[in-house]
Description:
Rossmann fold, five-stranded parallel sheet, 7 helices, globular, alpha/beta
Amino acid sequence: MTSLLHLDSSADRFDDSVSRRLTALFADTWRGLHGTTGYRYRDLAADPVPPVTSAYATLGRRVEKRGVVPPAGVTALAGDPAERREWALTLPLVTEVLAADTVLLGVPMYNFSVPASLKAWIDRISFPGVFTDPDSGGSLLRRTRVVVVTARGGAYGPGTPRESFDFQAPYLRMYFGNLGVTEENLSFVHAELTLAAQMPQLAHLQPLAADSLTAARAAVTELASRPANTPAPATTP
Length: 237
């Protein structure tokens, strides 16, 4: 069964959030093709993932000393109630990622990077060894497709004055690549200049903002219609 894990991280409500509206378009398109059975949604802003604690770190180090321990074997290594609680918070999130053919992320740019709500999820699912095949040592995510839909108040694409300020897309590209998601299975769609209609100093850029949003809508619709194991198109600028 084809499956989609859909995560939003914007602190804004749906009507005020470009990233939420774009991921909803992806999800609606996907469900129109595949139905609702394989669809899973998590709102990281409305239902925050708790930050990791010292118990999480202690358990992680203990697991690392054993080599690659499958998720099913971690519970037995938890040494006290605090560690068992940390693992109980972590395992469902890891299981969702492992079960998904496609992971869809809605990511507004906050202070040139990602929201804290998304970072908390990233920190928790990054438990040692959970995405490593214990038999081959390869990544269990090598066939997983990740689609990152961003919303940026300004312009950070190639050749823009603030290109070097973008710590959002490069970070996520490096993170998922390090987990074993292949470059051809990792797609970025950027809606830029989303504040042009609200900030007087950006008003002259409203036509470019409209063009960027139109291109982003077309890109998410195309990606949602694409089979999970089909190579992704180039990143939308």
